[in-house]
Amino acid sequence: MTTLPPCPQCNSEYTYEDGAQLVCPECGHEWSAEAPAAAAADDGVRIIKDANGNVLQDGDSVTVIKDLKIKGSSLVVKVGTKVRNIRLVDGDHDIDCKIDGIGAMGLKSEFVRKA
């Protein structure tokens, strides 16, 4: 009998195979059976990419690729608006920034490209 590695998320010993994936029944975490060590090494490191697939970092400048309506306001962030000195955060809106004329706001990385 083959022993399966514990869950890298919660260290549960009750993992099982589901095709090419390993699954933890306690926390629901799924990871690749081929590289469990690589998955454990990447824990906590989140890579955020723009609409073109370029990796974004804190302090980068980005350009908005789509008109974005601001919820609760009549303002619109226009296509081509350049945003400088972004900060990457966890959450649905993964970019914190300050846009001239609008103020501080959160953007989704899928609506920007690296400048």
UniProtKB/TrEMBL annotation:
Residues 3-32 form the Protein YjdM N-terminal domain. It comes from the Bacteria. It holds the Pfam family Zn_Ribbon_YjdM. Coiled coil: none annotated. InterPro entries: YjdM, YjdM_C, YjdM_N. Residues 48-115 form the Protein YjdM C-terminal domain. Belongs to the YjdM family. NCBIfam families: phnA (TIGR00686). This is Protein YjdM. It comes from Pseudoxanthomonas helianthi.
